[in-house]
Specification:
By secondary structure, the chain is mainly alpha-helical. The protein has one domain: Lysozyme (Orthogonal Bundle), CATH 1.10.530. It is 52% helix and 11% strand. It has helices at 17-31, 54-57, 64-83, 92-105, 107-111, 114-120, 125-130, 144-159, and strands spanning 6-7, 34-39, 45-48, 90-91, 137-138, 141-142. It has a two-stranded antiparallel sheet. The protein is globular, with a radius of gyration of 15 Å.
């Protein structure tokens, strides 16, 4: 294994279980657990822990266990899809930050971002992790919840530690 917990991304297997385990508390904290379908701040039908899949949000209510299972499955899919556009080795904490971010913004947006372009160009993590902070808008407006989340993801990305930003 490369030094400093750095690992190559396996494009078939995804970012890895360590990234999912590190990202899960951030995702759950910032998405929250809603047992009923609701509209997010920009009107997107959402359920559980940020689920926006049309088939899922058709249901009106869920148990907590169902929501946790859905989130785990969704993060595994995101980890696999996101890995397909990452060409450079990254550390587990960096992968966790990227996974939390892409879970929120979507893999398509993440993979076409300046952040991923800088990562793949070989920029240092200090440079491309900073890009996370730019993703604090929804519907064209800065949302304080997204600003807090991006700060937490940035901290995870550069230091390997996250704590909720109040």
């Amino acid at each position: 294994m490369p030094a400093n917990n750095e690992r190559r991304v396996n494009k078939k297997a995804g970012l890895g279980l360590a990234a999912i385990l590190l990202a899960s508390p951030m995702v759950i904290y910032y998405e929250g657990v809603e047992l009923k379908t609701y509209s997010d701040p920009v009107g997107i039908p959402t359920a559980c822990i940020g689920e926006t899949d049309k088939e899922i949000v058709l249901r009106e209510s869920f148990t907590r266990d169902e929501c946790l299972a859905l989130a785990g499955a969704s993060m595994a899919v995101h980890a696999t899809e996101l890995a397909k556009c990452i060409e450079k080795p990254i550390k587990n904490n960096e992968a966790a930050a990227l996974l939390s971010w892409s879970y929120n913004v979507g893999v398509g947006a993440a993979c076409s971002s300046t952040l991923v372009r800088k990562l793949n160009a070989g920029e240092s993590a200090a440079v491309w992790c900073e890009e996370l902070k730019r993703w604090d808008k929804a519907g064209g407006k800065v949302l304080s919840g997204l600003t807090k989340r991006r700060t937490s993801e940035f901290n995870m990305c550069v230091s390997g530690v996250w704590s909720p930003v109040k």
